[in-house]
Amino acid sequence: LSSEIARWGLLAKRLRFHIVGAFAVSLGVAAFLKFAVAKPGKKAYADFYRNYDSMKDFEKMKKAGIFQSAK
Amino acid sequence: MSQVQPECSPSVVPAAHSKEKMPPYTNYHAQRSYPMPDEPFCTELNAEQRALKEKEKGSWTQLTHDEKVALYRLQFHETFAEMNRRSNEWKTVMGCVFFFFGFTALMIWWQRIYVFPKKPVTLTDEWKAQQLQRILDMKGNPVQGLASRWDYEKKEWKK
After folding, report:
1. Which superfamily is assigned to A1-64 in CATH?
2. Bridge-partner residues for B150, per DSSP?
């Protein structure tokens, strides 16, 4: 019986399954994050700053009264 | 853990109120993580069982199937399947857990009404509204955060 068990390669099978799986899962998660988080994030910043006029923004904030050193 | 041996000596009747001897207590306890205790399950053997134990000292190929089962039952209380059977205990446990969640919720509700002091001024709705207006004026997180969800022309939250 013990010789039969030795030929089952149980640890090798388990390791292979898990190593391959770990690779696949991490690649999948990385791809998902790149397309669901990183790409939209970069686009949001690009869109915001494309036509951003900081002086106009500053004037609006001054009018709203939030500054102590510029009224 | 001590256990009474109910089926060990089949000739012994449940002895609560009779004058016969009670079956002995042992320290036998088997569980999934400790399946083979040091002591056998049945320590008091009648004559038949003792004869069987003698036969066990010889070659096991001479034992019949029933004798092997009888020897197993002498040594162990339950088979692995019987020992590892599932139970409905989890329902009781979850029920009690949820019950106490609910009870705690009622206690906290009562405390909120009768025990807690008045809110500080910074937590009143008025003050919180003024605070939010100031954050929007400062354009806090205008790219992806709070101020990006506010429509500055229409003065309302973006849909």
Report:
1. Mitochondrial cytochrome c oxidase subunit VIc/VIIs (4.10.93.10)
2. B157
Hey, what amino acid is at B82? E
The phi-psi region of residue A58 (left if phi > 0; otherwise alpha if psi is between -120 and 50; otherwise beta) is alpha
Does A48 sit within 8 Å of B139, measured CB to CB?
no
**How far is it, in rounded angstroms, from Cα B132 to Cα B124?**
12
Q: Does B24 touch chain A (CB under 8 A)?
A: no
Pick A66's closest partner by Cβ from B134, B142, B143.
Answer: B134
Interchain contact, A64 vs B139, CB within 8 Å: no
Q: Count other C-beta atoms under 10 Å from residue B64's C-beta.
A: 9
What string of DSSP letters covers B23-55?
PPEE----BTTB-S-SS-S--S--HHHHHHHHH
Domains in chain A: boundaries: 1-64
Query: How much of chain B exceeds pLDDT 70, in percent?
Result: 86
Give the bridge partners for B31, in sequence order: B34
Could you read off the pLDDT tens digit of each residue along chain B, which spans 159 residues?
555 554 565 334 454 566 666 667 778 888 889 988 888 988 888 888 999 999 999 999 999 999 999 999 999 989 999 999 999 999 999 999 999 999 999 999 999 999 999 999 999 999 999 999 999 999 999 999 999 999 999 999 998
Calculated CA dihedral for residues B42, B44, B46, B50, nearest 10 degrees = 70
Q: What is the pTM of this model?
A: 0.56
Contact (CB<8Å) B139/A57: yes
